[in-house]
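Sample pair:
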Amino acid sequence: MFLENVRLAITALKSNKVRTFLTMLGIIIGLASVIAIMSVGSAMNNKIKSEVGEMGANNISVYLTQKANDEGEYDDDVRDMKEKDYFNNDMMIALEKNFSNDVSGIVLSQEVGSTKITDKKKYANINMYGVNVTAMNQKKLKVVAGRNLEKSDYSSGANVIIVSDKYVKNLFDGNNEAALGKSVEIELNDNYFSFSIVGVYEYSASAGGFSAGVSEKDIPTDCYIPFKASKRILRSSKDGLQEMTIIAKTGDVAPDVLATNIQNWLNENYYKTNDAYEAYCYSMKAELDQMNKMVGSITLAIMGIGAISLLVGGIGVMNIMIVTISERTREIGTRKALGATNGYIRMQFITEAVVVCVMGGVIGVILGLILGAVISNIMGSVGAPSPLGVLACLMFSVLFGVFFGYYPANKAAKLNPIEALRYE
């Protein structure tokens, strides 16, 4: 019975191809837009995960912030930070020891300064940073000539430096080997410092450098020296830092939970009696989850808007089915005269509506997948709707056919056969 109804539905739809296609168009556009939005939402989530992953999804940022009073208010005239307020070396050692099962290292990095290195008519803009071994490992730089900073460099605070190949291109015409052993001289606070180039790394936008609105030659690139050397040349009166980054191990404790534990430990052991400042921690994983929730909410909102066209398409199906029944009144009367029951007539036209919606749904899903893939590719990411989401869309098209086809089908089933045979 069901297969017979499907065959009759396809035959009836093929008899008027243009009208059938126009009827399906609303369903096609609606489902295509929903599938495409699902694909783009997936691509956005993947892009966020990728970018946060490059920064370190397990990273926990720790910095000093003003302490609120008992009423939760902040003092606009808070005192300046003193030596006792900063994170110091003993504090970091104790932190790593206390959280040895959950922390793999602490990133120490500070900006030494920005300057222009010149050699006659040649020049290169640089940003110099002092880093420890953990910070350098996090950079994941690809050294193309020479060597990276070594353990002895960090421990002694040697005046050695790693520069980018863009720096070498500007000052040494791209000859990496010629740059090795040469000096980088900078002036800080009326003092001159010289660093020997021991390595050249491959420059990339993610490795450092701000290029928006800047010519290729003027793009500043990052150079790295041992953290101990940066402390020495800055001649800072403070031995500590205002912020640091902790690398969490992949384990039983989630990064956001670990961030809270570290924050509580620091404040309980070092800042409980501090009158102005306290430690605050947050994890990149928490930010990633928050961004994913935001993207998910936006995706659902846009999908809701796209689903409006599905409603319009469903109304179109109902409208055409009513017209079809009017055109086939005599056929309905003949079928009833030959013994067709009301249930059979009802099911015949419901099946016809379902076939229209399913055909439109399949075309819409295919079109949506193609459109979503194109947009995702333009975004520079890969995204696709979940198989469950695609199946839900197809099931939704079936329900649409039943819902919007029931009224005209029921109307056809209730036709009086004698009146139907007389219909002109």
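The chain is about 55% helix and 20% strand.
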